[in-house]
Amino acid sequence: MTSESVSPQEAKRLIDQGAVLIDIRDPAEYLREHILNARSLPLTDITAGKKLEGTEGQTVIFHCLSGGRTAQNANVLMKAASPVPVLLMAGGINAWKSAHLPTIEDKKQPLPIMRQVQIVAGTLILIGVVLGYTIDSRLFLLSGFVGAGLLFAGVSGLCGMASLLLKMPWNRPDK
To answer: Which of 14, 64, 78, 86 is catalytic?
Structure first.
């Protein structure tokens, strides 16, 4: 069984005819912005064995941010939706927006955690470089420390900065 890729315009046409759109991004990404009537089923849940329910007789269209996660995990997605037909939306929500199709955006939701990590790491590296040149060359160590942390996160899959940022008040869900 193979999956077929569809353009955002074709996906919209199919959705209007009753296809089900599944957003496989993380819940925080979905809450920040999503396509109207898209159902959230994170890839982490799917890879953990969660099956898609309530789609009997309907075509299922999966999407992510840019299409990479859906393409890389096509086989897993097809198994999760089996036996219904599965399509992958090319270019993800980014292509959907580029096609001037509407999304629902909630800017009150925090940025996805990896974007927060990139902002904080970039800021700390820049501060370390500026302070290293202007105040004391030992302050370059700040940039080196952040770089080492990023290297460790990439190799191990464990990101201390992401863990710390997840504990910040803006990343805690309202209870």
So the answer is: 64
